[in-house]
């Protein structure tokens, strides 16, 4: 596996339903954002274009 394929991250964003998720990495080859949802044990992912359109950076409480 190519080490340059994944870019590490650790940042919180809100999805379009208002749920805060934690982005853990970006897959350059597949152009997708990989993140964790609260209470869900598996990694989730969406295409980069979808993430940019429907997710907003989380800043603060609530």
Please describe what this structure looks like.
With 62 residues, the protein is mainly beta. The chain is built from one helix and five strands; from the N terminus they run ββββαβ. The chain has a five-stranded antiparallel sheet with strand order 4-3-2-1-5, covered by helices on one side. The radius of gyration is 12 Å and the shape is globular.
Helix content: 10-25%
Count of extended strands:
5
Instruction: Average the pLDDT over all residues and give the rounded result.
Output: 93
Low-confidence stretches: none
Report the structural category: mainly beta
Which percent range describes the beta-strand content? over 45%
Head-to-tail CA distance between termini: 38 Å
> What is the general shape?
globular
Largest sheet: 5 strands, antiparallel
Strand order of the largest sheet: 4-3-2-1-5
List the helices and strands and how they pair.
Blueprint (H helix, E strand, L loop, with lengths): L5 E9 L5 E8 L4 E5 L7 E4 H7 L1 E2 L5
Task: Give a concise summary.
The chain is mostly beta strands and 62 residues long. Helices cover 11% and strands 45% of the residues. It contains one helix and five strands; from the N terminus they run ββββαβ.
Structure characteristics:
62 residues, mainly beta, 5-stranded antiparallel sheet, 11% helix, globular
């Amino acid at each position: 596996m190519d080490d340059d394929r994944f870019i590490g991250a650790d940042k919180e964003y809100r999805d379009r339903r208002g749920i805060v998720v934690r982005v853990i990495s970006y897959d350059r080859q597949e152009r997708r954002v990989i993140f964790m949802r609260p209470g869900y044990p598996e990694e989730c992912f969406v295409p980069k274009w979808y993430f940019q359109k429907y997710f907003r950076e989380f800043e603060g409480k609530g």
